[in-house]
Specification:
Blueprint lengths: L14 E2 L39 E2 L5 E3 L3 H14 L3 H11 L23 H17 L2 H21 L11 H7 L7 H19 L2 H18 L4 H7 L7 H12 L2 H8 L4 H8 L10 H18 L2 H17 L31 H17 L3 H15 L33 H9 L8 E3 L3 E4 L5 E5 L4 E6 L7 E8 L3 E9 L7 E4 L2 E2 L8 E9 L4 E5 L4 E6 L2 E9 L2 E9 L2 H4 L16 E3 L8 E3 L7 E3 L7 E4 L6 E4 L1 E6 L3
Parallel strand pairs: 1-12, 5-9, 17-22
Antiparallel strand pairs: 2-4, 3-6, 4-5, 6-7, 7-8, 8-13, 9-12, 10-11, 10-13, 14-15, 15-16, 15-22, 16-20, 16-21, 18-19, 19-20
Helix pairs in contact: 2-4, 3-4, 3-6, 3-16, 6-7, 6-9, 9-10, 9-12, 11-13, 12-13, 12-14, 14-15, 14-16
Length: 645
Amino acid sequence: MISLSKFSRRNFIATVGAAAGSALLPKITLAQDPVVNTTHPNGKPVNREEVPWKVRPFPMKQVRLGKGVCTTAMEANRGYLHSLPPDRLLHTFRVNAGLPSSAQPLGGWEAPDCELRGHFAGGHYLSAVALMYGSTGDEDLKKNGDTVVAELAKCQKSLNNGGYLSAFPIEFFDRLRNRERVWAPFYTIHKIMAGNLDMYVHTGNQQALEVTEQMANWVGGYTGPLSYDHMQRILGTEYGGMGEVLSNLYAVTGKEYYLHMAKRFDKKWFFDPLAAHRDELKGLHVNTHIPQVIAAARYYELTGEPYYRNIAEYFWDEVTSERSYCTGGTSNHESWNTDPGKLAGELSTTTTEDCCAYNMMKLTRHLFGWSPDAHYMDYYERLVFNHRLGTINPEDGALMYYLPLASGYWKTFGKPFDSLWCCTGTGVEEYAKLTDTIYFHDDDSVYVNLYVDSNLEWPEKGMKLAQETRFPEQQGTVLTVSAKAPVQLGINLRIPYWAQGGSVKINGQTLPAFASPSSYLTLNRVWKTGDKIELNLPMALHIDPMPDDHTVQAMMYGPLVLAGKFDAVTKDMQYGDYEPKASDEYKTPDIVADANQPTAWVEVDSKQPLNFKAVGQSQPINLVPLYQIINNRYTVYWKVKNKSV
């Protein structure tokens, strides 16, 4: 379990030089990438934020990845996106609109008989293309995205139903209105709207905005005649992030109609307990509800209503401190099945759905924007290095649905054209935007949140920042400044919760000041070309026990969850299923350890970086970071017996 509540909410900042200012720029904050995208005729930015973020991510085009594990994941994802033919993506949309199509249908959740068809092909795919364009400038992918947008617009026109656009018949919404069995039509509509809006925000595709607005107008026509109670009943069916996308559409267009429409997707029975700081999450489907909290966060930013901030902050605190595993992931069998803190009996082949990790990362960015405390980025780092990295196959870009935490199982991946699950969709988005959180900034300082080899350009300050690191193999990072002219600003370095001491040098000189774990160390001075920061962050072994059974423990090294690595599995076992099948039992050993020295049973292997071995156990065990295991059985949580007994 992640006891992030134990981390201080206050930033202990050691400042070198004068303190930096924190004036706010009036910019539109969108969920993925706060950029100015709407202007008055005089060219000045329009600010619709009642509560602007105190710190903001840089536009994605200003950050580029260097070498390392994040780049490997991004490039695998980019290759997968390039492999998806637009005609196959468009097939079910064209069929539904009565337009000709001879393309081979996709399978899985995009198959012509799946009620969620269109969620990936017209939604997640466009978001991923737009985000990948922001991260890499890939013009060929952008052209494919533009093609899909243009063809979706043709389908929308052919349907001629007030802006309705989907790959399934409008009758699905009749079933929803009548509370007849139907999967999740608004969930799918949300993905299509969000994909088109992302194409507008990140690539400037004006037609995509027009498609989104027409869809929103149809949504207004559908929901408008419904009573409040009827709408609340409809919200009993999963509806994704409808509140978020409508809020973002208001931020882009200034049309308050969309903001009022967003509020119609508030689920009162879910929101009210959270606003009152009550955990009534037991029994809920997890990824149905995290997007609703993201919508609450967005609504707070646009209205300033504290009710919505209370929802978002309490929910985040409760999930991360009481309902999350060592990886940062949450859920089992897609749900919260227990009271808070009861997780020892929740280890299965279907733990920690990947969509949940994606959406918790989105929510975390909002809270960090409001209050740039390091504990938010400590959690974000956990998810990046333990749940996101390692759930994409670097060989072919295949993606996972669950990250199993039951002992002795393995990772399973979807087939490229015949799975296309919800987690395939959030996966292609996640690995397209690995640049979006490494650096944040206010007017006078930059926040270095993640230690990822990368390059930042800040043209308003006339400076560049190059981060060279092989983290997590390297225990720290080196940052080098390039500046057109000397510039004074703060560089805020996150000192993680796991840091065992540490030190920092500027131009070879060790500074006498450092900072506490889970804080930011602020270096404020006049920077010039060639200035170099060397940050040393020693890692150490530490345990993460289950809150309700401390004899069930995960071993960690710095931010990394370590896993026992066992036998390899075949490709037939790995591909096509949501989860590994228990076709044969595989018993992993219990561990004997001294309760007074809980990490002593693991030793660092000096011959290879990030390799470890068990000592004093019944059989040899090699341990490596969980993200490095792709095609082996593994164990994350160990049953530990006290050897003094």
